[in-house]
Amino acid sequence: MIISNRRITGLAVGVIAELVEEIGPLWQERHQARLTSRPRKRAVGAGAKHRLVFVDRLLATLVRLRHGVTHDVLACWFGVDRSTITRAVGEVRPLLAERGCTVSPDVRLRTLADVVNHLGASGTTGIIDGTEIRVRRPAAGRKDRDKFISGKNKQNAVKSMVVTDAEGHVLWCSPARPASCADITHARQLGLVKLLADGPAVEILADAGYQGLGAQTGGRVVTPPHRKFKKNAPDWYEEMYER
């Protein structure tokens, strides 16, 4: 089930098969080297056998890197002890890193200012967008009850602004607030305009809900142009809008 579902591992079955074929022998070689490198009272191969084969070790590591799942959850998923998962991830992750499959270390983006500085230092293009999560309707008589009604989806929801890089890796997610606030207003309240105007030169892509931020940030937020032609738009305008 795990191998066949690309949403879990992020990789096609063929790619996982290539990783098993390429990394499996390396893992087996290093495992045998560890067994023979220390004094032993039993022969190599004696004692308890592994309950987690290499394919499962690889899958557990891929799920850990992609979703940040805790070792306790993976242990329940694969039916082994937590220490087995910890050992498997510790053994397989360096092998993936040698192949180029790694996560950049020591990157901790806790605030929106950290994200802007990170984008500027790395020269990476950012993407911002608002996301809404439906919530139960606030109780009658609650103050500001109508603020939870989303003008976009016409339902009670809370909204967050998410910042990713050009490849879609999530860099930061804002605290949730009532969904009646427009996307551009939410971005302004979070201080994005000031951070971009006073911070490093970065490029951030956004949809039409953020039109107006480009002028306020010196062109650092790129949005589709306003719809000047609602009917029979010329070809040059359609090409510019799509781009």
Structure, described:
The protein has 243 residues and is an alpha/beta fold. 43% of the residues lie in helices and 12% in strands. Strand 2 and strand 3 form a beta hairpin. Helix 3 crosses helix 5. The radius of gyration is 25 Å and the shape is elongated. The two termini are 39 Å apart.
Using brief descriptors, characterize the structure shown.
243 residues, alpha/beta, six-stranded mixed β-sheet, elongated
What ranges have pLDDT less than 50 throughout 5 or more consecutive residues?
none
Sequence of secondary-structure elements: HHHHHHEEEEHHEHEH
> How many strand units?
6
Which class best fits the helix and strand makeup? Answer: alpha/beta
Query: How many strands, what sense, and barrel or not for the largest sheet?
Result: 6 strands, mixed
| Average of per-residue pLDDT values | 84
Strand content: 5-15%
- How large is the count of helical segments? 10
Dominant shape? elongated
First-residue to last-residue Cα separation: 39 Å
Percent helix range: 40-55%
Radius of gyration: 25 Å
